[in-house]
Design brief:
This protein has four helices and two strands, in the order αααββα. The protein has 122 residues and is mainly alpha-helical. β1 and β2 form a beta hairpin.
Length: 122
């Protein structure tokens, strides 16, 4: 339990504590709302901390992004598929923008992001 005294209810968070809490949000399967609830924060406050941490990391050279180039796909009739390929749990999703091949162990978040991006729903 935390007791607030005085007129304001504003807490001061040391940078190390903020960094530790933000790091918790990066754990696979963890949600912002669950982390915020555990630490008595509002989700928007935690989201702001994450944004500030991302900007700081980008300025320090700690985060980088690879450029992505999407080229128009050949019409379906022109696409060649190998005649004899073993199906080792591979799923193919044929979209207007191209074919996505999803192998075993692919993460749902990654698959969803790729399909949205290729569908233009990003």
């Amino acid at each position: 339990m935390e007791v607030f005294t005085g007129a304001g209810h504003r807490r001061e968070w040391p940078a190390e504590v903020k960094a530790r809490i933000v790091a918790e949000t990066l754990v696979p399967g963890e949600t912002l709302s669950a982390v915020a609830r555990r630490h008595g924060l509002r989700v928007d406050q935690l989201f702001s901390w994450r944004k500030l941490a991302r900007r700081a990391a980008e300025q320090a050279g700690g985060v980088s992004f690879a450029p992505v180039v999407v080229t128009p796909a050949a019409p379906a009739a022109q696409r060649r598929r190998p005649e004899h390929r073993r199906n080792d749990g591979l799923i193919e999703v044929d979209l207007a923008a191209g074919v996505i091949r999803i192998g075993r162990g692919a993460e749902v978040r990654a698959i969803t992001a790729v399909i949205r991006a290729m569908s233009g729903a990003a």
